[in-house]
Design a protein that fits this description.
Radius of gyration: 23 Å
Helix content: over 70%
Order of helices and strands: HHHHHHHHHH
Distance between the termini: 34 Å
Largest sheet: none
Shape: flat
Number of helices: 10
Number of strands: 0
Structural class: mainly alpha
Length: 255
């Protein structure tokens, strides 16, 4: 019963909001270009489903590519920092500085360096920058979270730095790394969308470009349709990562 209530509560709220929205648009005769009704948005999604799906795949592919690159770079740097604390002390300030710098501030430079004719490269790089820090921060914190008593035991048996890293500190860091990837997944999508807004050239035909193009033409229903597809895509991706997180942590607990 609790599970059913937990499922029905948000569903009921969303249904009530959509119904109130629909009725308000009809009764107040709100212009479609100002605020389309949910039925108009649904019709726009049905009509433009094919280009919306292609745009969603473009955005998703760039976000996933950025996530993979960020994961590899962040984990490698964290592991190197685990072997040598000086490397961690050198990387940490740079990583923090890049993270707190707004991506829109460095986007023009990245666009110039990658070439204006290749906006997809710039978008992937910018999304990678956004997704990098959560993974690196989680991995670095996890590597430092090993049990001190076990560290002393490894020292007692003469374990090398590499053995301590692989057999003790890395297994201890698994929950932190999983959480870092979970946060970075959402940030990679956000970074890709924001970077595509900044690029604004139409070279990368993602969902952000669909929003910009439709907004410039006052086709507000199409703007909302792209937003709905983006929200659904990001939610499904986050749900998949959450399921993977549970599986990995269940395996880790068993180990």
């Amino acid at each position: 019963m609790n599970r059913l209530a937990a499922f029905l509560a948000p569903l009921t709220l969303v249904t009530a909001i959509l119904l109130g929205w629909e009725l308000a648009c009809r009764w107040m005769s709100v212009p479609v270009y100002l605020l389309p009704s949910p039925s108009a948005i649904a019709a726009s999604i049905a009509v433009d489903w094919s280009p919306l799906a292609a745009a969603a795949w473009t955005t998703l592919s760039m976000a996933l590519t950025a996530l993979v690159i960020a994961s590899v770079c962040a984990c490698l740097l964290a592991l190197l920092g685990g072997l040598n604390p000086l490397i961690e002390q050198a990387v940490q300030p740079i990583a923090v500085t890049v993270q707190v710098t707004p991506v829109v501030a460095i986007a023009p430079l990245v666009m110039i360096w990658t070439g204006l004719e290749h906006p997809g490269r710039a978008i992937t790089i910018l999304a990678t920058i956004v997704a990098f820090f959560p993974i690196y921060s989680g991995a670095a914190a996890g590597l430092r979270a090993a049990d001190p008593d076990l560290e002393r035991l490894f020292d007692l048996y003469g374990a090398s730095r590499w053995q301590k890293l692989i057999r003790l500190r890395l297994p201890s860091a698994v929950p932190f790394m999983v959480e870092g990837h979970k946060v970075a997944t959402a940030l990679a999508v956000i970074g890709a969308v924001v970077a595509e807004f900044v690029a604004g050239s139409g070279g990368a035909q993602g969902l952000a470009w669909r929003i910009i193009e439709s907004a410039n033409r006052l086709q507000t229903a199409r703007v909302f349709a792209a937003l709905v597809v983006l929200a659904v895509m990001a939610t499904l991706l986050y749900a998949l990562v959450t399921v993977a997180e549970r599986r990995i942590l269940a395996w880790w607990s068993g180990r």
